[in-house]
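Lab notes, practical 5.
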Amino acid sequence: DTPRAEKVVLYCLRAKALLLLPTFSAEAEADLNKALKLDPSSSPDTYIALSECLWRKNQEQEAVDAAQSALSIDAKYIPALCQLSRLVRALATKEGSTEEQRANYLHDSIMKAKEALGVDINSGEAWSALGLAHIQVAVATGFGYIGMKKALAAMQQAVVKCPNDPDIHYNLAVVLESTGNYSLAAVEYAKAALIDPLLKGANASANSCKALLERYLSVETEAKKNENLKKELLFKLPASKAANGVVTKSSIAEILSLSPSEIKAAKGHMLSVMVIGLISPQGAYPLCYQCIDRNGQTCMLLVPRLQSSAVSRRDVVTVTFPPSAISAVEQKNVMADDKKTLVDVQSVVIAADPDSILVNNAPVANSLFTLPQMSSRVFQ
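Output from the prediction step:
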């Protein structure tokens, strides 16, 4: 007869091989249960494999219990902490959960990832778990820009620790794209595709980011030559003024120059820009519009949670800071109009809060809002 310890190893190896497939495997579940029956305290990794198996079977609570069992063997087992972060994060998306339950799940997801980092600050798996948790929080709260910046910081750490993980490169690219850094997003999508040539959509996403930047540069060049557009800007867009504690700025440069204390001192700083056109695909999230201020400076306006029909060419969009945010982003290696030269473009990115923007001096109709969405790898 095969010794007990050897049987446990064989059962686990066969189960993990079956788990390489993306679907639930009854054989894998059976093998893992046999291994644990022979040796209930053998390895926390066995419980993690069982947790994954049960999750695919849609037995959510049992999957959580299996991950908790792994921690009962080793309270500092990073894969178990990261698995729990992922599981409770996914539970927040389940139908039937109350707002309070969803908030608690997301808080727990972040805390488990941070607990893993407390064990090993150099764990790429833990940084990735934290980044994904922040993405989920940002989506759940209406695609908050601050949450996405937190996700970006975590994913940047993860990719340093795990440079050969294609999913981490892909997820970093998703966050970069969502925050308006299209050139770096294209680089990270390309890296993900290079590591895993079968990674679905990576090359297409890289090309989409590059195409957006080419459109931006081309439109910016044409806008600077358009004398009629300059006259229209002076007619449509307001000059700088202050009234009732609200400060209206006429230019992007004025908003960029504000210090945090200056922004805090006023009830709000408003900037109106005119839409030149939609430069992202209509199905992109967030949408990216190329806009121009009263002085002729262009910017990228990122607008989440709105249908593309909510904003049209030549509309005037008024943005308030805060809750909207603004940053300067250098877009590197953008193909120029001659299709031969690569240039660096200094862009300004405005992350608009869709609940507070005005389109032609009116709030956006509720019917034009859409649900937040993301397309990161291993997001669920």
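Observations recorded by the TA: Residues 11 and 34 are 7 Å apart (CA to CA). The beta strands are 241-243, 246-249, 268-278, 287-292, 298-303, 316-321, 325-335, 342-351, 358-359, 362-363.
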